[in-house]
Design a protein that fits this description.
The protein is α+β, with helices and mostly antiparallel strands. Helix content is 30%, strand content 19%. The chain has helices at residues 4-10, 54-74, 125-138; strands at residues 17-21, 24-28, 38-42, 79-83, 99-104. The chain has a 5-stranded antiparallel β-sheet with strand order 1-2-3-5-4, with helices on one face. The longest helix has 21 residues, at 54-74. The protein is globular, with a radius of gyration of 17 Å. The two termini are 31 Å apart. It binds guanosine-5'-monophosphate and zinc ion. Zinc ion binds next to α1.
Length: 139
């Protein structure tokens, strides 16, 4: 298994570990966007969020919730940006689910999640709602 996050989760390669849960591991990003940039990963090797088993998803997000305050306060920050690049089209470079927690400060010059996108939506919202609900109904 050559996946770098699997290897970190197993302890085969070093990382600055922040927390270990039964099913998830949190560690510092090797190329942080800000001091205290944490990655939370499931132990299970799964590329996309929607492929996570329910228990793994629960543990992953419980860990994110538990860490978000300490990551902010430990770095004396004002907030956190929490995000997931979910699929190669989004810029995901490591195909093992990981949640970024990045400490933020007022006036730090970084944008909000909205700043990633160049434009707004174009299709009728009811039509878009129908399209998603139709997929949801397929289960
Ligand atoms: P992505 O772009 O896939 O959402 O983010 C992957 C993140 O993993 C990047 O922020 C990158 O710096 C981090 N990363 C990649 N390889 C390693 C590694 O070997 N160790 C650690 N700690 N972080 C890594
Ligand atoms: Zn993996």
């Amino acid at each position: 298994m050559s996946c770098v996050f699997c290897r970190i989760a197993r302890g085969d390669i070093p990382a600055e570990i922040i927390a270990r849960e039964d099913g998830a591991v949190a560690f510092l990003d090797v190329a942080p966007l800000a001091d205290g940039h944490v990655l939370v990963v499931p132990e299970a090797h799964v590329a996309r969020l929607e492929d996570l088993a329910p228990d793994d998803a629960r543990t992953l997000f419980q860990t994110v919730v538990r860490l978000s305050g300490p990551v902010r306060d430990g770095l004396g920050a004002d907030g956190t940006t929490i995000g997931v690049n979910n699929g190669a089209a989004t810029g995901q470079t490591v195909p093992h689910v990981h949640v970024h927690i990045v400490p933020r400060r007022h006036g730090d010059g970084a944008g909000s999640i909205h700043s990633i996108f160049p434009g707004g939506s174009r299709r009728d919202v009811a039509e878009v709602g129908d399209a998603i609900r139709a997929e949801l109904a397929l289960g």
